[in-house]
């Protein structure tokens, strides 16, 4: 399961969510949006770097990313 870390009012987070929604039209992917403002630890860790796409505990893809970047991320599972 992918996690899109962002917060309300972040236009870049909205853009990242749009990319995920477009990709999910052609490839089945499971993802959830997590508002970092509701979690102090996430806010400290990612507050200035959102949006961030996470897969598992270690792999993260930082904005800007495209649908192709997400595909590579899912295949390689690497941290950028």
From TrEMBL:
<protein>
    <submittedName>
        <fullName>Glutaredoxin family protein</fullName>
    </submittedName>
</protein>
<dbReference type="InterPro" id="IPR036249">
    <property type="entry name" value="Thioredoxin-like_sf"/>
</dbReference>
<dbReference type="InterPro" id="IPR008554">
    <property type="entry name" value="Glutaredoxin-like"/>
</dbReference>
<dbReference type="Pfam" id="PF05768">
    <property type="entry name" value="Glrx-like"/>
</dbReference>
């Amino acid at each position: 399961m992918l996690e899109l870390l962002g917060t309300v009012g972040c236009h870049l987070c909205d853009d990242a969510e749009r990319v995920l929604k477009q990709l999910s039209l052609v490839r089945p992917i499971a993802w959830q949006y997590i508002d970092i403002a509701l979690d102090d630890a996430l806010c400290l860790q990612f507050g200035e770097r959102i949006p961030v796409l996470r897969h598992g505990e270690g792999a993260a893809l930082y904005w800007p990313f495209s649908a192709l970047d997400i595909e590579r991320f899912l295949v390689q599972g690497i941290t950028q």
